[in-house]
Amino acid sequence: MSYDHLSGNTKLPAPCIVDTGIIVNKQDMQRLLVDLNRVRYCYSQDGQLLVEDEGYVLEVFSDPQRSTLVANHTLYINVCSFDYLELKRSPDQQPWFDLIQENQHLRLMPLSNPLQEQKNRSLNAAALEAVVAEVLSASWDVRIDDDDSFSF
Length: 152
Description:
Elements: E1 2-3, E2 10-11, E3 21-23, H1 26-33, E4 38-45, E5 48-61, E6 69-71, E7 74-78, E8 84-89, E9 95-101, E10 104-110, H2 114-149
Parallel strand pairs: 5-7
Antiparallel strand pairs: 1-2, 3-8, 4-5, 4-10, 6-7, 8-9, 9-10
């Protein structure tokens, strides 16, 4: 804990949450959710389950003027739609993200693993770089061939 000698105020350190806890800061909520891809979701009101399905998180944002939308197996999550996020683990130790707003509860259970996704992105990036290099090389070859045909 640090102490501000000039004003006499004590400053608390930022929280450190590991695997379980309650997050109220909208930026922290957004950072946690933005990496989600495929999820299983459950939506309940007043403790009654209304919807349970799978979907893909397409966008996570913070805007008090826009809605959270869940339709056609896609989720557009506005962290401003919720009072807090509770980070939990299932009985089999899988992460759960419970978004709570008064009597409404949206639970997100990841179906994709960020470690595997990152590995796939790295492989895809390497493959993309190779394709771009090949296309650029072919483009230069075509330009050289065109220049040769106009020389006398």
